[in-house]
Design a protein that fits this description.
Blueprint: E1 9-13, H1 19-27, E2 32-36, H2 38-43, H3 52-71, E3 78-83, H4 90-96, E4 101-106, H5 109-117, H6 122-126, H7 128-135, H8 147-169, E5 174-177, H9 178-183, H10 185-195, H11 202-211, H12 225-230, H13 237-250
Parallel strand pairs: 1-3, 1-4, 2-3, 4-5
Helix pairs in contact: 5-8, 7-8, 8-13
């Protein structure tokens, strides 16, 4: 069975955008069955392999397995996989799954970047410099007051540009805002429930209430709602200067999903 004959969905977002939280939220209803980052988990060893054909072949193998799994999903259950690596490579996702439904988790760039910069091993985890180099163009500024301002600027540009490129490739993608789920849940939760055919939005409300506790995890973005919404306030002035310059240069105003 091909992906065109299934209702396969990809839940996608930038690293530190809240995809784990939204993935767990959706599965709490029993209406969604999800595989967590199948490409990232099996693709890391070939991500920088010089033989592109080998990388493509392995990706196609994973895609075929997902198609087969989706075709065997029970009636009334939406098959989905959560992934982050394709936010930087939307075209490859489109080539692997020409008619897949994309649901995109968005989060304010300042909070994404602050969460990334809290991770000491961020370069080893996400190969950020290579991604920044790919995203960089002539409009990027090069004069900074400090390394912190430069890193914040470049990461914010990378995040905003990644979401914009993804939306150009998937113009019909559905957006889920992490901030809206936490600050306007009475409106956002029923909308998300309708997207996935859940008739009882209270299932999602209960999950959010139970999830919103301090887990104290080293890599967890979602510690408490106030941390998610305001974690950029922990950062210094140069950080905020870099974020402000990136938003000004890109014309970013409200949310990544609305930008550009």
């Amino acid at each position: 069975m091909s992906v065109e004959e299934t209702n396969l969905t990809v839940l996608i977002g930038h690293q530190r955008s809240g995809t784990n939280f939204v993935n767990d939220l959706l599965q709490s209803s029993g209406r969604v069955e999800s595989v967590n980052e199948p490409f990232s988990m099996f693709y890391s060893s070939t991500r920088t392999h010089p033989d592109r054909a080998l990388r493509t072949a392995r990706s196609k193998q994973i895609a075929l397995q997902l198609r087969r799994w989706a075709g065997e999903s029970p009636r009334g259950v939406a098959p989905m996989f959560k992934e982050t690596c394709f936010i930087h490579d939307a075209q490859s996702l489109r080539e692997l799954f020409p008619r897949i439904r994309a649901v995109v988790v968005t989060r304010e760039p300042a909070n994404i970047v602050a969460a990334i910069m809290r991770i000491v091993e961020r370069e080893q985890l996400w190969n950020l410099q290579a991604r920044i180099a790919t995203a960089r163009n002539a409009s990027w500024v090069t004069d900074f007051a400090s390394p912190e301002e430069q890193e914040a600027y470049e990461l914010a540009r990378m995040v905003i540009d990644a979401y914009r490129r993804f939306r150009r490739v998937f113009p019909s993608s559905v957006q889920i805002s992490l901030e809206a789920l936490l600050t306007d849940s009475d409106r956002e939760v029923p909308r998300v429930a309708r997207i996935f055919g859940e008739t009882d939005p209270e299932v999602f409300h209960r999950f959010i209430d139970e999830y919103s506790v301090d887990k104290g995890g080293r890599y967890s973005t979602f510690r408490r709602p106030e941390h998610v919404l305001t974690n950029d306030r922990e950062m210094g002035g140069d950080f905020h200067a870099g974020i402000a310059r990136a938003c000004e240069d890109t014309g970013y105003t409200q949310s990544v999903s609305d930008a550009g």
